[in-house]
Design brief:
Blueprint lengths: L2 H11 L8 H10 L5 H5 L6 H11 L4 H6 L2 H9 L1 H4 L1 H26 L1
Helix pairs in contact: 1-2, 4-8
């Protein structure tokens, strides 16, 4: 794939991944053929900052976990009222990393 396309994609979407993962994603994108470019452009990535705001507002009901795709954990948080608040507070610190990890998993699925 063209390095200019890859660099532009990573400049606009680097905030969706951990900083140490960006170089690995770049290398994998450079090795792909151009036929996958449309699929890569259409991947819906979640914004970690938005997920943190959602976690602050609705984390006790598990809304953050449902949106990330962790349905089981979302149900668990919903039934326990966020683990009596403890689980909610822990997720305030973890949800951005979880969101970035889920974004990386989506990219791996597309790049396969």
């Amino acid at each position: 794939m063209d390095s200019q396309k890859v660099d532009l994609f990573l400049m606009t979407n680097a905030k969706f991944f951990e900083s140490h993962q960006v170089q690995m994603i770049r290398e994998r994108l450079l090795n792909l053929d151009d036929s996958k470019w449309a699929m890569i452009q259409s991947v819906q990535l979640k914004d970690p900052t938005t997920m943190l705001i959602i976690s602050l507002l609705g984390g006790g009901l598990g809304i953050d976990r449902f949106m990330v795709g962790d349905t089981g954990l979302g149900v668990g948080k919903l039934l326990t009222c966020g683990g009596l608040g403890i689980w909610t507070i822990v997720d305030w610190f973890m949800i951005m990393g979880v969101t970035r990890q889920k974004n990386l998993e989506k990219m791996h699925q597309v790049m396969m």
